Amino acid sequence: xxxARRVAKLEAGRTPTEIVLAWLAEAxxxxxxxxxxxxxxxxxxxxxxxxxxxRQVEAAVRASVRGxxxxxxxxxxxxxxxxLVLVELVLQANLAAAxxxxxxxxxxxxxxxxxxxxAAESExxxxxxxxxxxxxxxxxxxxxxxxxxxLSDLYVEAAARASLEQRYLAGRSVLFPALAQAWADLVARLxxxxxxxxxxxxxxxxxxxxxxxxxxxxVEPAARRAQELADLARIAALELLGERExxxxxxxxxxxxxxxxxxxxxxxADPDPAAAP
Length: 277
Known about the structure:
By secondary structure, the protein is mainly α. It has eleven helices and two strands. The chain has helices at 3-12, 16-27, 33-40, 49-64, 69-128, 133-168, 177-192, 194-200, 211-217, 219-240, 244-259; strands at 261-262, 265-266. A hairpin with a 2-residue loop joins strand 1 (261-262) and strand 2. The two termini are 36 Å apart.
C-alpha cells in the first residue's frame, strides 16, 4: 500500500470530532480569529474550512457506513451536521469570549481608577480631617461589589466554555492564542485588585472577597451559559444545512428556556450538538 493510500485510509477512519479538532489546530496557528478569517478569505470555494470539513466528513462516513444509498446519505448528512455544530461552537465561543473580555477590560480600567480615588480619599481624610470609617467602608464595599460582579462574569464564561470543550472537543481549548492570553492576563489583573481592596477599609463588616466562593457560585449560571452557546451553534449549523424550520424550533426552545423558571432556577436542556442536525 502506497503512502498516499495509507494516509487516505487513516483520514477516512476519522470521526467528525477528530476532523474538526484537526481543523482547529490549523486555525490556531493564527493568533486571532480575524487573522485566520483574513488568511482563508481568498481561498478557492472548495478549500474554505466548512467545505473542506464537510468533504472530509463525507469521505469518512462513506468509507465506514454500509447500507442503501438513502441510508448512507442520511448518515453523511447527520455527521456533516455534527461537524458543523462543532465548528460553530468554536466560533460562538471565541466571539462570546472576546465580547466578555472587552466589557470586563473596560470595567478593570474603571475599577483601577476607582481604587486610586479611594486610596487618595483615604489619605486626604487622614491628613486633613478625622477619619470616617463608616464612609470609607461603604465606599470600599461598593467597589468590592463591582469587582465581584466583573470576576463572576469572567468565571461564568470560562466555566461554560470549559464544560463545552470537555464534553464535545476532547478538552481542547477553543480560544485563539492571543485571545486566550488576553483572557488570562485580564483575570490575573482583576484578581490582583482583591488584596488592595481589603487594605482600604480594614474595619468593614463585609466579608472579604472569596475567589473560591465566586467560582462555586459560577457553576449554575455557567450551565445555562453553556446551553446558550450550544443553542447558538446548533441554530447556525441548521441554517447552513438549509433547515430553517428546525433552526426556528431550537430558537423557540432556547427562548422558552430563558424565560421558564423552576424552584431551582431556569430550566435548561442538555446541550448536545450531536442531536441537532
